[in-house]
Amino acid sequence: MIPMVDLRAQYASIKEEVDAAVLDVLASGQFALGPQVSAFEEEFAAYSGARYGVAVNSGTSALHLALLAAGVGPSDEVITVPFTFMATVAAVRYTGATPVFVDIEPRSCTMDVAQVRNAITDRTSAIIPVHLYGQPADLGPLLNLAREHHLTIIEDAAQAHGAEYRGRRVGGLGDFGCFSFYPGKNLGAYGEGGLVVTNDEGQAKALRSLRNWGEDQPYKHERPVFNYRMDNIQGAILRVKLRHLPAWTEARRRLAVAYDEALTGTGVVSPTVMPYAHHVYHLYAIQSSDRDRLHRALGQAEIQTGRHYPAPVHLHAAHADLGGNAGDHPHSETAAQRTLTLPIYPEMPSDVPERVAGIIRETLSS
Ligand SMILES: *Cc1c(COP(=O)(O)O)cnc(C)c1O
Known about the structure:
The structure is a single chain. Helix content is 39%, strand content 14%. With 366 residues, it is α/β, with parallel strands linked by helices. The chain folds into 2 domains: 226 residues, Aspartate Aminotransferase, domain 2 (3-Layer(aba) Sandwich), CATH 3.40.640.10; 121 residues, Aspartate Aminotransferase, domain 1, CATH 3.90.1150. A 7-stranded mixed beta sheet has the order 1-11-10-7-6-2-3, with helices on both faces. Strands 9-8-12 form a 3-stranded antiparallel beta sheet, with no helix packed on it. The chain has a two-stranded antiparallel sheet with strand order 4-5. α1 packs antiparallel against α8 and α2 runs parallel beside α8. The structure holds pyridoxal-5'-phosphate (PLP). Pyridoxal-5'-phosphate (PLP) binds next to α3 and α4.
């Protein structure tokens, strides 16, 4: 069985380092936030080319707090894409703001920046581009637009640790960058985790306060505050794993090249890497009108595949009140029907792309 991701294989490769780091935390008696979390915040911010990092308990919490720090509330609109993991939109709704969707650009599957200008109203306060599958959205024109209209850019970088836009790491390019350390992400905790990066010292302070019951003014805060703290144990684990992330990213990129080559001529569409992008392949997403048939055939051959994501968010029942209809965002809807994600993880055997391509070729020619 080839899984989508093999966390046991990864743990086996770093067991000694991780075990030692965890045992140190157990002995230290510090569990909620703590020195390992603080050190990880600095190291991850530096890795992402940002000044400050504020660790939280999930990527969803990271998005929620970035929105709150940006001042987003019930009277605001936030522009994002419907072709994303549901958390991007859920976080907007937690603030009471209204999500406004623009479609994706069909090759990159990231925000079609050309459509954003028309979606801006006098209620718009923020834009959340999603660096889907590990490829940055087209941030340059988006940042210009945001400057022109005084809007906040919150990068959803949950799938894009170490991805680069025109040679610069994502996260610190917008006003806030939100990362997830869900176990299966490119950098994963052994539990839940997330982090916001920012270059603004005041906002970093605000984020720290929001995540920890208003720590700077306990019992006196003027707005709701949260318990979104990261565990010290997760900080220690993430520090160990961050040291391996560059090598893991290179392994993903090598496997992606192997997939690109093996899939040539099979009739499926391989991912398009945009000229501005350094892609970190959280997922290797292909497109085919026979997606479901390929999913079944690969499953029979003991190769797990995924559908990320089978329904665009504007068509989720949870957001029916926003009035989204089929046909509103055709590229997102088509991508939801055609996208198949193939196994990719640093420890994956190097012959898998060839095997997968063989099954795809056979299936589509029968
Ligand atoms: C995983 C993910 C999130 C949410 O992160 P959690 O840590 O699971 O809360 C948000 N956005 C995207 C695009 C994601 O892939």
